[in-house]
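[09:14] KT: can someone run the structure on this one? pasting the chain below
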Amino acid sequence: MSFASDIKKEISGISLDDCCLKAELYEIIRLKSSIMISNRNFKVTFTTAVIQSARRIVYLLKHLYQKKVEILKKDTPKLDYKPLYIIAFIDEEMKVLRDLQLINEDYSLNETIARELFAKDCCKASILRGAFLAKGSINNPTTNNYHFEIVCPNHEDAVFICELLQEIGLNPKIITRAKGEVVYLKKAEHIGDFLRYIGASTSLFAFEDLRIKKDLNNYVNRIMNCDVANEQKAIATAAKQLEDIAFLEKQYGLINLTPRLMDAVILRTTFPDDSLAQLSEQSEEVINHYVSKSGLSHCFRDIRLLVEEIKKNKQKPI
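[09:31] RB: done, structure tokens below
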């Protein structure tokens, strides 16, 4: 079962007041259903691959309106094999659609969102809960990127969802795709806030736990990569310093170096693979006085300048 399915399973079991249940059903019908009319009878059909969503729709219709519901299971030939659940009911007296302000007096579908019907904060949370049950998804937090989305059939519904998310301090975006207008979040903390707002506490704890483990692993990997890079850099620098020392020994004579440069030579040749910080720590024991890391850096810089000067003088014509 996917992470999104686990969330839908959890929120499908939340007990709510009837006003909130209506808000949830309202949004599921807007985003998920197809409505057909024949002889002034409306047939409302839902199709979903998530069994938890199917059960929730059946519960809402029976609890709120005592509707008789037909449920069909349709097997799909896809390789991932996810059966489809088809839920349908006939709204003969238009009790459901009228109560939820989904149709007009002339029996046309009401495209305008019934904002005043679900103005309470608890109902707004249920609107988002219903939207996620209908067309929402969240990728597993162990994957590379965090991603939450709700697919809306039109721009008006997408803007409505965005407004509700913005009211709770989130920063959603809208993108148009072939499947519809997609409202999405990319920040992990915003996804966590959404789960908290819709009442998915268990899923929130699982999300945060996985996110913390992932972030910790990424941090450890970055530190290890940084340490490896620093070590490789230190080895390369030490090799270059040893090369300069060997050149001076052959072309200049180490006896001609100043005492401070000779100290650096002794430390480097004694510990050929150590970093400057490590050489500094060993300095008092090896040469009987302390030399700082920056002091060693200046010494090896002067050695490098001396090597370049000697090479330059050798290249001058006589």
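[09:33] KT: thanks! The chain has two domains: 3-199, 217-315.
[09:34] RB: yep, looked fine to me
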